Amino acid sequence: MTEVCAAPADPVLAPNPLGCSHYQRKCELVGPCCDKPYNCRFCHDEDVTNHTLDRRSVTEVVCLVCSARQAVSNLCTTLDCGTVFGGEYFCGVCKLFDDVDKGQFHCDGCGICRVGGRDKFCHCDTCGLCLPAGKTHKCISNTSHNNCPVCLEDIHTSRLEAHIPPCSHLLHLECFTGMMKQGLYACPTCGLSMQDMSRVWASIDREVASTPMPTEYAGLYREILCRDCNKTCTAVFHIVGMKCSSCGSYNTTLDKGPLLRLESKEGEEQVFVPLTEAEIAALSNVSFPIPDNVSDIASEGSDNEDGWETTEEVVEDDEDAGNEMVEEDLD
Fold first, then answer.
1. 5 or 221, which is more confident?
2. How far apart are the first and last CA of the chain?
3. Model confidence over 243-296: pLDDT tens digits?
4. High-pLDDT (> 90) share of the chain, %
5. By C-alpha distance, which of 128, 117, 116 is closest to 161?
């Protein structure tokens, strides 16, 4: 499984920092697999292609100040050296050393170190991961042990932030943001909307109202399945979208069956009759009128051809933005 590379350390945080682009620290890990020192497991894995470094199996480190090779600890044992390898954080379980304070803490439930502050997260035994404290969620057994459905990379040990949509099917935050910018608002795992879509549905209502269908399609309906409420209904057929009568969502898909025609009169129980093959064939020759504002719509959506433009809808409050789950296998 491919590991996600860490973000470069900020060189401004310390004068002449020791370490690598992944971590600022004052020691190297000696890989028991190849008996060579590396600044971190990422540096090892970039250099060696036929295996990865299991940091928990590391028993020796090399001081970057005096070059002494010694047993794992956070303090150089060489006389007159005494260098502290991880000035801000040290975990003897994960063999993690860091000179930068990131709010690191070791979670026994996850089995790895996390960032963001222990007081801001709590471990869910069902989901098998640390979640923002006080934030409700839908439990899914060991959900973080599934790969991100967008990039297919690991989530549980990833150093990228993970986003928790209402359905609790985790994906990387940057993958979620990328989907929103393309107008792809539905969970790639279950199809449920991943944010409040009320403003988008209202916008589509206006687009449907301003986009008349040809007279040949008047009174036609289709059976649809709503991905948001998981209910089926008979909706007015429209090329822009078909709205769920139960929850008002346009996150719908066609259900089984052909086009239907409403034949009951007003005040009577609705009766829908399937179109004949001849009627369906005749519809294929019907041309759709081009709306007067089609040029404006095209120019606004020129950078987004994969779905409705929802970029404006994904701007989250600063309060919520700070509560994204930070899942980080620190080293």
1. 221
2. 16
3. 999 999 999 999 888 888 887 666 677 788 888 888 888 888 777 666 555 444
4. 34
5. 116
Place of tokens 């089995």: 111
Question: Which pair of tokens denotes residue 153?
Answer: 């990379």
- What lies within 8 Å, CB to CB, of 236 at 6+ separation is 220, 221, 242, 243
**Residue where the block lists tokens 């259900």:** 255
In this structure, are strands 260-262 and 272-274 parallel, antiparallel, or unpaired? antiparallel
Structure tokens belonging to residue 239: 């090329």
Closest by CA position to 328, among listed 169, 104, 66 = 104
CA pair distance 302, 307, nearest whole angstrom:
11
**pLDDT tens, residue by residue, 157-169:** 777 788 888 888 8
Q: Which residues contact 247 (CB under 8 A, 6 or more apart)?
A: 226, 228, 229, 231
Nearest to 82 by CA among 95, 70, 91: 70
**Residue 130 and residue 211: Cα distance in Å, rounded?**
47
CA proximity to 137, closest of 145, 147, 129: 129
| DSSP string for residues in 133-150 | TT------TTGGGSPPTT
- The DSSP line for 77-141 is -STTT--BS-SSEEETTTTEEESS----EEETTTTEEE-S-GGGEEEETTTTEEEETT------T
